[in-house]
Amino acid sequence: MHDTSHITTPMDEDGDHIIVSDDEEEVDDVEVVEPQPSKRKLTSKVWLEMKKMRINGEWKAKCNWCHKVLTAGSGNGIKHLWLHLEICTLKKLNTKGGKTLSQSSLKVCAEEDGQVSMESYTFDQEYARIELGNMLVLHDYPLSMVDHVGFRRFVAALQPLFKLHTRNTIRGDIAGRYKIERKKAIEYMSMIQSRVAVTNNMWASHSKKKEYMAITTHFIDESWMLRNIFMRFIYVPTPHNAKVIAEMLYESSVEWNHDEKLLTVTVDNCNVNNKAVEEIVGKIWKIKLLCEDAHTTETSFWTYLQGIQEGMQVST
User: Fold this and answer.
1) What residue segments make up the domains of the chain, in order of their start?
2) How far, in Å, CA of 241 to CA of 150, rounded?
3) Per residue in 72-126, pLDDT tens?
4) 217: β partners
5) What is the pTM of this model?
6) GO biological process: any one (predicted)?
7) Class of domain 193-315
């Protein structure tokens, strides 16, 4: 047994300690089969707050409040289900005194003039889940952070309603969010009217065994603001020759809907890029996509960006 006397647990409105369970069974990665219609109905009122389902061949009961999974076999009875409902944290928070959390919570907001205002707050599980993924990406935190005991206790104390998922689920959330934002960016690129400049920067891993390509698009929007969209960061398969690099650049331009708006292609200083530029020019001119006054250049990636910034400063 671990000594838990030093752990402080959240309390409800009457000052009673609320038990926060860390042993909830995660069912994201197991086979779940919904119960089939049965001639025998579930008559106990416990099933108004529980859902019976079969998981990996065994009958389980899932709490409608906290989603905790409990045993529900014919030989287990339902007494333990009633006991769970009596101590369920989320049920207490949602039914205490007939009030819901959204009815009794206020959010403090800072106005532009420095004033502080209060407004009602409704907890949103899905929104909080998205923000968790955004935080992990923004600060480059490891996905394993959601499994850390200290972090889980902190979240439970901060917002007991929030259900933390496994790292695999969070990984899926981040990948799904990336696809959504990427689709928005591609649709935006298809609507811009200006010409675009593409820069390519090659990057090698520490072992020098793998090389990657970073492709960025630069353009002036309708408000005459310089915009930069990071299109792709992709692994370049061997051999790292001019044909492979040129093909990947061209495919990215087509995918991002600016192949017909391409004005300049700027590559990093690299021996193979001399021939890669020739490959790109030949491919683009062959299908007549590059505008008549287009240019291709070979220069330093950072020098090119610096030149754009200096030009914008002079124009303003």
Assistant:
1) 32-87, 193-315
2) 49
3) 887 778 888 998 888 887 777 766 554 444 444 555 565 666 665 556 667 888 8
4) 198, 229
5) 0.52
6) regulation of transcription by RNA polymerase II
7) alpha beta
